[in-house]
Amino acid sequence: MIIFPAIDLRGGKCVRLIQGDFDKETVYSDDPQATALKWQNLGAKFLHVVDLDGARKGSPQNLSAIKNILDAVKIPIEVGGGIRTLEDVEKILSLGVRRVILGSVAVENISLVEEAVKKFGDKIVVGIDARDGFVAVHGWEKSSAIKADELAKKISAAGVETIIYTDISKDGMLSGVNAKIFSELEKKSGAKIVASGGVKSIEDIRALKAEKISGVIVGKAIYTGALDLKLAIEIAEA
Q: Which of 51, 53, 88, 129 is catalytic?
């Protein structure tokens, strides 16, 4: 299982939100480059970077911060947030990003996802962000009538191998995870699932590993010190 430390970018700074609420922001660093290096030095093999401004505005906004992170670390990174056209995908990949995360566009334009997969293969992953089982879009500010498991099946049928599933109700809450949700989605969709939202302890890491989840994104817990990243990686890779 891969542990993905999260770096959420807003205004070029490294922040965390509570349940995706832009009014509930904590700034953890004004140097995302140093933060990325810190997680790499603690053993991270892959970084999860989200352009929060991009998610809100509908196009990438923090390209210079992303480039700085890429210049600083040797490990691969994946980037999401406001990537809604093939041109956006190409722009992000051209920086040297390993994987691009498509979100809202998967709800609104599944044919673009299919096209992106044909062109870029496993460099395309899709993020499903859900509240009470229903998909949220546009920086989590709008809810849709689409069920997360139905969308996951469509995405998998479009050729996407990996889906990042975020439980918004738990994101930034340090409330723990329901590992079964992720393993059930994996079975229903046939895609690999990366779990996101609510991870607070080593017990969560063990529970997800026991469910054979392929990856987990850790955010607030490693910023507050509630989760020892080095130990979490050791357990995940054991």
A: 129
Task: Please indicate whether residue 171 is annotated as part of the active site.
Answer: no
Q: How far is CA 229 from the centre of its chain?
A: 17
Q: Is the pLDDT of residue 137 over 80?
A: no
pLDDT of residue 145 exceeding 90 = no
> Are the C-beta atoms of residues 76 and 46 closer than 8 Å to each other?
yes
Residue 206 in contact with residue 235, Cβ under 8 Å? yes
Q: Which pLDDT score, from 0 to 100, does residue 170 have?
A: 58
* pTM over 0.90, yes/no: yes
**Residue 23 bears catalytic tag:** no
